[in-house]
Amino acid sequence: MHDKSDNRVVALIEEFLTARATRKPSPHTQAAYRRDLLAVAALAAELATPPLPLADLRIGALFPGLLRSAFARFAADRAAASVGRAWSTWNGFFSFLVAEQVVTGNPMPAVGRPRAPLPQPKPLRGEDTPELLLASAARGEGRQRDPWPERDVAVLALALCAGLRLSELLALRVGSLGGRPGERRLEVSGKGGRPRVMPVESDVDAVIGDYLDSRVRRFGSRTVRPDSALLVDRQGVPLRRGGLQYLVESCYRRAGIGDRVPRGARLHALRHTFATRLAEDGAGAAEIMRLLGHASLASSQTYIEVTAAQQREAVRANRTNRSVVRVAAGSGGSGVEDGR
């Protein structure tokens, strides 16, 4: 229940974040909400007439004009995607305040929202790269104090063959894998709390089974209870964000494919590879959306568009096709007419 006597923006932000915590956002997401809210609020306090300390800024001072000025200053040195994310966070914040009857309306529609281009897929480069990566992890190559190839292969397979995000991998429980042999499925807690069910191919099922068997050998059967984390470190402790990122980076390094991993998409490159291969195999945007847990069909459509563009480029680059074009042109154009 909101204390109507306290309309300080900082206090209301904390109240909003507490309410959002019931949706179980990742700590990374929750931190981003707080950072965006406080950054714009601080700019609004600075631009107010007269300027105010952030702690003294009241919600009633946030008229559309002041918010527009604050967002303009916020956008000056940030990418459109970052500004759009902050706009969405503030829109959610004011929607919460309207529902709590703290304010009578949401001013954010009067604040310009940038149109951020959809991020382009960043799959692993090289047709054989996923196979090289998995083969290297299975051999347990490299200088490792305590190699655990079964675990490493399971992590890579879940990202490459099921397209799971980092947060989704960390949220998996042993009991998330269900169904009869040959009909296995994985229950995934997706972004924004959206659940989805992924079919598990027999090869991936076997990889996960090998990993769980190796885990029993290492730590005993009590560590594979249905409610325990599926992915653990070499001490049997549930993997955390940094540990999972380091694990994948180590696999890249041992496989010698660091130059094939796009910048800014280290673990996410595995998910993008999964989606790109779906598109190459003819999956439609709706199917990609369902399997990847996208909130927007447009996000899924980018994989199809990029794949189509790459295929056209490959056709243009094909020497045989260029030779055929030259022959057709030298024949007086009859071949072109016949092909219409």
Radius of gyration: 25 Å
Straight-line N-to-C gap: 70 Å
| Strand line-up in the sheet with most strands | 1-2-3
Strand content: under 5%
What's the overall average pLDDT, rounded? 83
CATH topology label of the domain at 129-262:
hpI Integrase, Chain A
Tally of contiguous helical segments: 14
Please identify the top-level CATH class of the domain at 129-262.
Mainly Alpha
Largest sheet, described in full? Answer: 3 strands, antiparallel
CATH homologous superfamily identity of the domain at 129-262: Intergrase catalytic core
Gross geometry: elongated
Strand segment tally: 3
State the secondary-structure class: mainly alpha
Low-confidence stretches: 310-329, 331-340
Organism: Micromonospora endophytica
InterPro entries: CB, DNA_brk_join_enz, Integrase-like_cat_sf, Integrase_catalytic, Integrase_recombinase_N, Tyrosine_recombinase_XerCD
Pfam families: Phage_integrase (PF00589)
Protein name: Integrase
